[in-house]
Design brief:
The complex is a heterodimer of chains A (105) and B (157). Chain A has one domain: Immunoglobulins (Immunoglobulin-like), CATH 2.60.40. Helix content of chain A is 0%, strand content 50%. Chain A contains no helices and 7 strands. By secondary structure, chain A is mainly β. Chain B is α+β, with helices and mostly antiparallel strands and 157 residues long. Chain B has 2 domains: 58 residues, no CATH class; 98 residues, Immunoglobulin-like (Sandwich), CATH 2.60.40.2470. In chain B, strands 1, 3, 5, 6, 8 and 9 form a 6-stranded mixed beta sheet that branches. The longest helix of chain B is centred in the N-terminal third of the chain and has 13 residues. Chain B is globular. The termini of chain B are far apart. In chain B, 41% of the residues are buried. About 11% of the residues of chain B have low confidence. The chains are: A mainly beta (105), B alpha+beta (157). Strand 4 of chain A pairs antiparallel with strand 6 of chain B, so a sheet runs across the interface.
Chain lengths: 105, 157
Amino acid sequence: MAKKKLKVRASGKKGYAVVKAILFHPMETGLRKSKETGQIIPAHYIQEVSIKHQDAEVMQVNMGIAVSKNPYLSVEIDGAAKGDKISIGWKDNLGESASTDVTVS
Amino acid sequence: MNKQRRSFLRNSMAGSLVAVSVASGLLTPSRVLAGAWPQAAFDSKSVKDAMMGLLGTEKFEETSQIKLRTPDIAENGSVVPVTVKTKITGVESISVFALENARPLAISADMSAKARPVLATRIKLGKTSKVVALVRANGKLFGATKTIKVTLGGCGG
């Protein structure tokens, strides 16, 4: 992989885990104009983020164009303990996607 | 129930796209986790359409049970940290709307029982705007509102 597309860290607390993720993405709104050409820059943004704990979906986050560039997400999962697998994947409006697995530490 | 039917009728008469989607069952409020991305709601330019499209209603109960943590003044509108946290139990979804944005719906998270009702992210604000966090729990809709002052807009242009 040329460029890392997401960075996830899951840290175990008492009875739950905190999952923090940065998804590397331009999050282009489709409303901006390029300064050089005056053309509208086409929209390119993440639409869906799925968060799984031990392969069971815990949360689905839907994003619009108002989410900042390189979106940051922080969520908490009940019952996730040290050593459990957390998977995060995203999909954007152009059909690109990426996902990663981390272990709760 | 009756209330929903009223607003449904009102919207059918207005013939809006959102109403059509609701009628065809694409965006019913009881959408299961991992449903399709709610295109109509995210594309809506008005707050009302966005809320109707996503949640099936625009009425919510203002409550202090929801903590909406944001800066009061955002120097840079393109990165505004927002944290929504609530003590309400049985949360089904958390969504954030920026009322003055060209597309008000910013983010919406569908949660299973295992997800704690906490959501932190960063959003863009075109200009000084009210931000509303809506929490759906046990079929009811709760909300918290906060005004964020933006000194430099984040949506370019």
